[in-house]
Specification:
By secondary structure, this protein is of the alpha/beta class. It has 13 helices and 26 strands. Helix 1 (5-15) crosses helix 6, helix 5 packs across helix 6 (202-214) and helix 8 (246-258) crosses helix 9. The longest helix is centred in the N-terminal third of the chain and has 17 residues, at 30-46. The N and C termini lie far apart (59 Å).
Length: 501
C-alpha cells in the first residue's frame, strides 16, 4: 500500500481499475476517481496551491467530494470536510481558523461563499471540470509531494472550551488505523458499503478509505435515504455492510417491527459514535439473524480504539471490545497512576493512530496529547471513564465531563440509559439533569404504546439503586440528534425543561 492517501487510491486503481468505487447518481470506477483526482491536483497547483495549504469542502455527501479530498492529499494540501447544513456562524468560525486556500461547495454550501476570504479560490462541485480527461497510466508522485508524516486532514469536533477544534491527522495516522480496522472487520472486494452518515463525520469519511483498501464499492447516500425507505434502499441497492450509529439502528428496528424484511445481501452492521444498548443488539439479532454485528469504540483524536467481534457479543455483553493491533490502552486514576483490571478511571491510548494534535490550539493539545512514561511517545488522554477486564476488554462507563451529582452521588447518564434500554418496548433513551430543580430526567422513545412514564420508572427502580432512578420520565416521539446522528445533549435538556413545566 502507498504510504500516502493518494498512494492508497493509486494502488486500488491498479488492482481494480474498472471496478465501481463510488455509486451515486452514476458509478465511478477506481480508475476514473484516481485519474480525476490527478487532474484536479494539477489544476490546483497551476492556480497557486502549495503543500500545506488548506482545502475545504462544504457539501452534502457527493462522489465529487471524494475526488477533491484525494486531489488535495495528492498535492500535499490539508483537506477539511464540513457539513453544509451546520449553523452558518459555526461554519464561518471554522473557516476563520483554517484560512482555506480553496473552497469547494455544492448548492447546500453556497451560503458560505460570502464568508470566504478574498484570497480563497472558489469551486462549485457541480461545475468541476472532471469530464473528458486522460484516464491513462498514473504518473509517479513528483518531488515536493507529501510524505506519510505530513498532515492530511482536519476533522472538526467540539472542544472542551465549547468551540470547534480541528483534529490534525497525518497520512500515516489514517493508513495505520484503516489497516488495523480492516484486520478486525474483514471488508471484502465484493462488498457494497452503505454510506448514510455525513463524510464530515470521521466514521463516514473512513468508509472511503476502508473501501479503497479492499476494492469495495461505496454507495454514497445521505441522511434522507435513511428514513422510512431505508429497508427498501438496502434491499434494492444490495448493501452488504452498513456502518451506523445507535439512532440509525433504532430507526431500522422501528421499520422492522412494522414490516419484517430479511435483507439477504446484508452481512455486517458496525456501530460507533455512542453505545448501542445490549437490548437493541439483541433485537437486531432477532430480526436479522444472519447479519454479524460489530460494536466499536473510538474518538476523532485516534479514530478507533477497540472493536468487539460478533463471536464475543454473548460473553462480553457491555464491552466495546479489545484494543486494535498496535494499540496500547491503560486506565489511570486522577493522579495519573495506572489502575488494575476492574477499576474505573480515565482511559489513555497509545499508538500510531494518535493524532498530531489540535489545529492552532497549543494549550488544549498539550492537555490531551501528553508525553508517555518513556518521555518520547505521545499518549492520548481520552476524557472517557472506562475499566478493563483481566483479558484487556474495554468497558465504557461514561465521559469525565458528563458526571452528574445527584442526591450526593456522582453518576454517569450512560448507566441509566443502559438500564432503560433493557426494558422491553423502550427503544432509545437520554438522561439530563434539569437545573435549578436538580431533577434527574429520562427522555425515552418507545414502540409500545402501553409503556407509560410511570411504568418505566417502576421498572428502573427494580434495576437501579434509588439515587440513580430518574425523578421524571418523559416519553417523546424522538430524541434530538446532531448531524452525525448522536443525541444532542443541549436540545435534550431544553425538551426536558419544557416537559416539566
Amino acid at each position: 500500500m502507498g504510504r500516502t492517501l493518494s498512494g492508497l487510491l493509486d494502488d486500488a486503481a491498479r488492482q481494480w481499475s474498472d471496478r465501481a468505487f463510488l455509486v451515486a447518481d452514476r458509478e465511478w470506477t477506481y480508475g476514473e476517481v484516481a485519474a480525476r483526482s490527478r487532474c484536479l491536483a494539477e489544476q490546483l497547483i497551476k492556480q497557486g496551491l502549495r503543500r500545506g495549504d488548506r482545502v475545504v469542502v462544504a457539501s452534502q455527501n457527493r462522489a465529487e467530494t471524494v475526488i477533491v479530498l484525494f486531489a488535495a492529499a495528492r498535492m500535499g494540501a490539508i483537506f477539511t470536510l464540513l457539513q453544509a447544513v451546520s449553523p452558518s456562524a459555526a461554519l464561518a468560525g471554522v473557516l476563520a481558523q483554517i484560512e482555506p486556500a480553496a473552497l469547494f461547495v455544492d448548492s447546500c454550501g453556497h451560503s458560505l461563499l460570502p464568508k470566504a476570504t478574498a484570497s480563497s479560490l472558489i469551486w462549485r462541485l457541480e461545475d468541476l471540470p472532471l469530464a473528458d480527461i486522460d484516464l491513462g497510466t498514473p504518473t509517479t508522485q513528483g518531488v515536493g509531494g507529501p510524505i506519510d508524516l505530513d498532515p492530511a486532514c482536519l476533522i472538526f469536533t467540539s472542544g472542551s472550551t465549547g468551540g470547534a477544534r480541528g483534529v490534525a491527522l497525518s497520512h500515516d495516522n489514517i493508513l495505520f488505523v484503516t489497516a488495523a480496522i480492516q484486520e478486525r472487520l474483514g471488508y471484502r472486494t465484493s462488498d457494497r458499503i452503505g454510506l448514510f452518515l455525513p463524510m464530515s463525520f470521521d466514521y463516514g469519511l473512513y468508509q472511503v478509505f476502508l473501501a479503497a483498501q479492499v476494492g469495495a464499492s461505496l454507495l454514497v447516500g445521505d441522511a434522507s435515504m435513511a428514513g422510512p425507505s431505508l429497508l427498501n434502499v438496502l434491499e434494492e441497492r444490495r448493501v452488504t455492510v452498513l456502518p451506523g450509529v445507535p439512532s440509525l439502528f433504532a430507526g431500522i428496528l422501528k421499520l422492522l417491527m412494522r414490516r419484517s424484511k430479511t435483507l439477504p445481501d446484508l452481512r455486517l452492521l458496525t456501530n460507533t459514535g455512542e453505545r448501542l444498548p445490549p437490548e437493541n443488539v439483541a433485537r437486531l439479532q432477532r430480526f436479522l439473524p444472519k447479519v454479524s454485528i460489530c460494536l466499536m469504540y473510538g474518538l476523532t483524536e485516534c479514530k478507533r480504539v477497540s472493536i468487539l467481534l460478533p463471536g464475543e457479543l454473548s460473553e462480553r455483553s457491555g464491552s466495546v471490545g479489545r484494543p486494535l493491533d498496535g494499540t496500547e490502552v491503560f486506565v489511570v486514576d486522577p493522579h495519573g497512576r495506572r489502575l488494575p483490571a476492574g477499576k474505573k478511571g480515565e482511559l489513555l491510548v497509545r499508538g500510531r493512530h494518535v493524532a498530531l494534535g489540535y489545529w492552532r490550539a497549543e494549550e488544549e493539545s498539550a492537555a490531551h496529547f501528553r508525553r508517555g512514561a518513556d518521555g518520547l511517545s505521545t499518549v492520548l488522554s481520552t476524557g472517557d471513564i472506562c475499566r478493563l477486564d483481566e483479558e484487556g476488554f474495554i468497558y465504557f462507563e461514561g465521559r469525565c465531563d458528563d458526571l452528574i451529582k445527584h442526591k450526593g452521588y456522582r453518576i454517569h447518564p450512560d448507566e441509566i440509559v443502559t438500564a432503560a434500554s433493557s426494558i422491553s418496548g423502550l427503544l432509545e433513551a437520554g438522561v439530563v439533569q434539569v437545573e435549578p430543580f436538580h431533577r434527574l430526567v429520562l427522555l425515552a422513545t418507545t414502540v409500545d404504546t402501553t409503556l407509560t412514564p410511570s411504568t418505566i420508572r417502576q421498572r428502573l427502580a427494580q434495576l437501579l439503586e434509588p439515587y440513580r432512578v430518574p425523578d421524571v420520565v418523559l416519553v417523546v416521539d424522538h430524541l434530538p440528534k446532531t448531524h452525525n446522528g448522536k443525541v444532542a445533549r443541549e436540545a435534550l435538556a431544553r425538551i426536558a425543561q419544557e416537559g416539566m413545566r
